[in-house]
């Protein structure tokens, strides 16, 4: 085959530009070919590609990287702020107002001022929303991908280190323990080579690789192939790249994830519904007011501007900005807890979550094997400490020190201490062997000194058939074989036993004790290894001799330990009414053990379902399974299984969060209501698909995010109560004036906009900064069908808004009535009317300030919460009052707003009326607390 021909995929298909698989052409079965023929099929040689040909293929296939998700241009992001329904309604209103100004005779400058003011509101809110979302997205883009940056290849027979993105099909890659695999490759040379496929399969076990041909089958099952994103944990070898970039297995999963539609969050759905309802109500009431006043004989243009004022009074112009700022505050709070929110609405969506589907490896666990038990002579020896840092101890270590010395000698891995760029201990090589080195150090052994005293002279690498690894060492007394492996296989090769320094024949009673101990450790989800040794006559014995007639030393049980903070986080999720479901590709026994350790499983009979069982279920059976209130573990599942489970939960009305760190998690991460990826151990595919990235990989941040998300929703409701009660206070006097026959309006549209901007937006933003209430995590998740305008919210709006409206009507009509001037004699320039509208506007502003204090809590007294505990809210209220004073006293603003100066007595009356909503709401809260106390039997 010509060396310039197209290389083939594992199934044989050609790779096209940028590494994309071509649907046509012959399919040479690369995994089925002998190693010697692979070079010809892939258009290369054992010396690798010549440099010129590698550059040509890079041009042909493109960079070895996954395509990044497209980002919206800045202008599109800014334009999107004007597509909000409230913004559209106000822009249309402004346009109609400009048109009215052009049609009316004589033209009224107040009409064009109203049009400009409405546009100003829209632009201001759009600017706030854009600034928050743009800042959040730029932060997300700062998170760099964690794919391998460099690798070693043969180019023209020379070993070179090249950027991973420059690897092309046909490159011969040199692999050693600790390397990250840069692309999908066919192994052509292997020396004890083993890889960790956890990022693709979810299983953290080391899997042996070989150069021998294999029968056709699923690509990930081919033992002579290695794949992008996986790690070499043991041995060494060489492999030829057959797929790069999007043509890899990562690319397949990436395309699956990209095809999954992004779901709308509950808040998006509810805000959209609320916007339609409010806009419809505003238009209807405005039309009604137009119709009611039409018989009065006023001009159509004047009446239309009046109707627009009514509509503006009902539209919460500040909602989009307040929503963005509230969510942005949640983003910043999460960032301080090492969590990156890629989409603002993800904060609230996580707060409304009812189900968390979590991966195991790297999410609940530390992805670090740790020995927790050493067993010898019927005695278990607990081991303290977690991770690869050799801190901790082995209980009563003396009897098992020889066992751990032999286990440490039979390892290829190396412990690497912290360096300037890495803050933690890590393992170079197989994590299981790393755990053995750590436990040996905890027992007081210096593995470096032991290796120097007993240098290795030969070895028999681990393979999945023997399930053993043997190393031969030269000692002062001769030669010694050190063997570790699966308990069943190693026990069958043992003739003697040595426990606590005493050696004797291995009896059937001893064998039974070893099997019982092994089963007990395995039932706890521990990975169990047996360790043995034997004396040899020479340095290079036959393998059968080195691995027979062994002396058993004992057992070692190790676990990928849970993160210390996970148990508390799971408990917090339980208290919050959130169901936690483990969805993993790992073994059911291991998954159940980890689930019990972290508190996901507490009952004796959890429901454990494998991928094979899921395949046998139809949709109805799956729905029935998920509807059961059981503790559920899904093990040995594929990306398609995860997608199916998430979809089934959503079909039942659940709000689903999915956590994970591997490519196998990506489709479900994107399809979920909220996808949470790991930033440190996660890979590009997962991070790109997720809405939220945990930079410290801590599952505990999930519980924190739920708490903050619920707080965001509460704060949005506080804003709604605040702003709509204020709107009732604005609309009430207008309605009363209309039906009472008063010829003018108590509040003009420009005054209403000034109130909304000066006394609505700023306090609402401050309410968005309120922290979570104390009992927020003791409440059940709200239903996906629960509306923002629940009965309780509407009732409180009417309660507070009604009090405001009564107070404003009272002060306005009291001033009009006390003047003795007939209604028909009033004009817009009449001094009494200007004083009355100033009192009405001031009354709303002051009552809003006290209402903002009232809505900070649902039941707790504001005195207990602290009047001064939200200084931003006090400052915002002070700004509104100061703006009102300026409108009252500054001549230029008096002209624009048609106002008059207020005296001290006027301010005193307004302050007294303003406190009424706060006092009434405090009485309501007290009644609610007393009623709750009676229900609990509390005499208070």
Written description of the protein model:
This protein is α+β, with helices and mostly antiparallel strands. The strands form 4 sheets. Strands 10, 11, 14, 15, 16, 17, 18, 19 and 20 form a 9-stranded mixed β-sheet that branches. Strand 24 (656-660), helix 23 and strand 25 form a beta-alpha-beta unit. It is elongated and about 125 Å long. The model is unreliable at 1-27 and 139-148 (pLDDT under 50).
Which keywords apply here?
940 residues, alpha+beta, nine-stranded mixed β-sheet, eight-stranded mixed β-sheet, 32 helices, 26 strands, 48% helix
How much beta, percentage-wise?
A: 15-25%
Q: How many whole angstroms does the radius of gyration measure?
A: 36 Å
Please state the overall shape, judged from the principal axes of the Cα atoms. Answer: elongated
Low-confidence stretches: 1-27, 139-148
Distance from first to last alpha carbon: 91 Å
Instruction: Give the averaged pLDDT, no decimals.
Output: 81
Contiguous helical run count = 32
- Which class of secondary structure composition applies to the elements? alpha+beta
The major beta sheet can be summarized as: 9 strands, mixed
Query: What is the helix fraction of residues, given as a range?
Result: 40-55%
- The total count of strands amounts to 26
Architecture blueprint of SSEs:
Elements: H1 35-41, H2 51-61, H3 74-80, H4 85-103, H5 109-141, E1 150-155, E2 158-163, E3 172-176, E4 184-196, H6 198-201, E5 206-208, E6 225-226, E7 231-243, H7 249-259, H8 266-293, H9 300-314, H10 319-335, E8 339-341, H11 345-351, E9 355-358, E10 370-376, E11 379-382, H12 401-409, E12 414-416, E13 426-428, H13 431-442, H14 447-453, E14 456-463, E15 468-475, E16 478-485, H15 487-491, E17 494-499, E18 502-505, H16 508-523, E19 527-536, H17 543-546, E20 550-559, H18 566-575, E21 579-583, H19 588-598, E22 607-610, H20 611-616, H21 619-627, E23 632-635, H22 639-651, E24 656-660, H23 666-671, E25 674-678, H24 684-689, E26 692-694, H25 700-740, H26 749-767, H27 791-819, H28 831-854, H29 862-865, H30 871-889, H31 891-897, H32 904-935
Parallel strand pairs: 9-21, 9-24, 17-20, 21-23, 22-23, 24-25, 25-26
Antiparallel strand pairs: 1-2, 1-3, 3-7, 4-5, 4-6, 4-7, 8-26, 10-11, 10-20, 12-13, 14-15, 15-16, 16-19, 17-18, 19-20
Helix pairs in contact: 4-5, 4-9, 5-10, 5-26, 8-9, 8-25, 9-26, 10-11, 10-25, 10-26, 11-25, 12-13, 18-25, 25-26, 25-27, 25-28, 26-28, 26-30, 27-28, 27-32, 28-30, 28-32, 30-31
């Amino acid at each position: 085959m010509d060396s310039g021909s197209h290389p083939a995929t594992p199934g044989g298909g050609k790779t096209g530009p940028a590494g994309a698989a071509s649907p046509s052409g012959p399919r040479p079965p690369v995994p089925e070919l002998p190693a010697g023929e692979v070079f010809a099929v892939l258009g290369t040689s054992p010396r690798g590609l010549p440099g010129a040909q590698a550059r040509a293929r890079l041009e042909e296939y493109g960079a070895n990287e996954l395509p990044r998700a497209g980002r919206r241009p800045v202008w599109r992001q800014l334009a999107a702020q004007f597509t909000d329904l409230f913004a559209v309604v106000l822009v249309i209103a402004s346009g109609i107002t400009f048109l009215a100004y052009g049609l009316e005779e004589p033209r009224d400058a107040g009409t064009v001022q109203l049009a400009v003011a409405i546009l100003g509101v829209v632009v201001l809110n759009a600017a706030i929303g854009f600034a928050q979302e743009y800042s959040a997205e730029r932060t997300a883009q700062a998170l760099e991908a964690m794919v391998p940056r460099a690798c070693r290849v043969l180019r023209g027979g020379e070993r070179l280190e090249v950027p991973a993105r420059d690897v092309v099909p046909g490159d011969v890659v040199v692999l050693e323990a600790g390397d990250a695999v840069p692309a999908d490759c066919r192994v052509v040379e292997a020396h004890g080579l083993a890889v960790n496929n956890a990022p693709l399969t979810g299983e953290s076990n080391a899997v042996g690789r070989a150069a021998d041909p294999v029968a056709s089958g699923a690509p990930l099952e081919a033992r002579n192939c290695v794949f992008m994103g996986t790690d070499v944990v043991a041995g060494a070898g060489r492999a030829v790249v057959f797929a790069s970039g999007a043509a890899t297995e990562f690319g397949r999963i990436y395309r699956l994830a990209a095809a999954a539609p992004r779901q709308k969050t509950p808040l998006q759905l509810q805000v959209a519904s609320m916007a339609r309802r409010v806009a419809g109500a505003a238009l209807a009431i405005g039309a009604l007011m137009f119709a009611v006043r039409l018989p009065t004989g006023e001009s159509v243009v004047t009446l239309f501007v009046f109707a627009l004022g009514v509509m503006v009074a009902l539209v919460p112009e500040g909602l989009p900005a307040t929503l963005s700022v509230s969510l942005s505050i949640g983003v910043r709070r999460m960032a301080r807890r090492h969590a990156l929110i890629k989409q603002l609405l993800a904060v609230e969506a996580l707060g409304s979550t009812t189900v968390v589907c979590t991966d195991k490896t790297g999410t609940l666990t530390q992805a670090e094997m740790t020995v927790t038990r050493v067993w010898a002579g019927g005695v278990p020896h607990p081991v303290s400490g977690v991770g690869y840092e050799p801190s901790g101890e082995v209980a009563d270590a003396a009897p098992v020190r020889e066992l751990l010395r032999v286990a440490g000698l039979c390892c290829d891995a190396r412990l690497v201490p912290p360096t300037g760029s890495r803050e933690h201990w890590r393992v170079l090589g197989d994590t299981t062997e790393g755990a053995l080195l750590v436990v040996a150090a905890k027992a007081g052994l210096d593995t470096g000194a032991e290796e120097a005293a007993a240098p290795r002279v030969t070895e028999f690498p681990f393979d999945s058939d023997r399930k053993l690894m043997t190393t031969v060492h030269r000692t002062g007394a001769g030669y010694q074989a050190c063997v570790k492996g699966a308990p069943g296989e190693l026990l069958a090769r043992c003739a003697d036993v040595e426990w606590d320094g005493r050696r004797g024949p291995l009896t059937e009673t001893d064998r039974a004790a070893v099997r019982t101990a092994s089963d007990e450790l395995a039932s706890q989800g521990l990975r169990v290894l047996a360790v043995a040794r034997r004396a040899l006559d020479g340095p290079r014995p036959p393998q059968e001799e080195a691995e027979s007639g062994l002396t058993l030393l004992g057992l070692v049980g190790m676990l990928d330990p849970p993160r210390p903070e996970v148990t508390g986080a799971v408990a917090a999720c339980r208290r919050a009414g959130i169901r936690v479901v483990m969805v993993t590709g790992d073994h059911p026994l291991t998954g159940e053990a980890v689930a019990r350790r972290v508190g996901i499983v507490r009952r004796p009979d959890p429901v454990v379902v494998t991928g094979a069982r899921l395949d046998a279920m139809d949709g109805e059976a799956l729905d029935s399974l998920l509807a059961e209130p059981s503790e559920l573990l899904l093990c040995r599942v594929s990306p398609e299984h995860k997608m199916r489970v998430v979809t089934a939960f959503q079909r039942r009305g659940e709000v689903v969060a999915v956590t994970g760190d591997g490519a196998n998690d990506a489709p479900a991460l994107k399809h979920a209501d909220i996808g949470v990826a790991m930033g440190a151990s996660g890979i590009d595919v997962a991070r790109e698909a997720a809405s939220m990235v945990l930079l410290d990989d801590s599952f505990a941040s999930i519980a924190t995010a739920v708490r903050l998300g619920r707080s965001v929703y509460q704060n949005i409701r506080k804003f709604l109560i605040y702003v709509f009660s204020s709107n009732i206070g604005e609309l009430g006097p207008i309605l009363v004036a209309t039906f009472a026959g008063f010829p003018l309006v108590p509040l003009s549209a420009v005054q209403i906009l000034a109130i909304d901007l000066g006394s609505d937006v700023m306090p609402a933003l401050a309410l968005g900064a309120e922290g979570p209430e104390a009992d927020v995590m003791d409440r059940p998740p709200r239903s996906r069908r629960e509306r923002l305008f629940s009965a309780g919210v509407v009732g409180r709006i009417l309660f507070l808004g009604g009090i405001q409206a009564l107070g404003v009507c009272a002060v306005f009509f009291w001033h009009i009535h006390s003047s003795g001037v007939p209604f028909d004699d009033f004009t817009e320039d009449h001094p009494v009317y200007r004083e009355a509208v100033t009192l009405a506007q001031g009354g709303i502003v002051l009552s809003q300030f006290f209402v903002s204090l009232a809505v900070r809590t649902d039941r707790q007294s504001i005195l207990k919460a602290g009047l001064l505990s939200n200084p931003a809210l006090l400052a915002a209220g002070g700004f509104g009052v100061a703006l009102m004073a300026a409108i009252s006293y500054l001549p230029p603003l008096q002209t624009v707003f048609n106002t008059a100066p207020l005296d001290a007595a006027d301010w005193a009356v307004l302050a007294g009326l303003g406190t009424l909503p706060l006092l009434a709401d405090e009485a309501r809260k007290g009644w609610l607390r007393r009623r709750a106390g009676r229900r609990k039997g509390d005499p208070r």
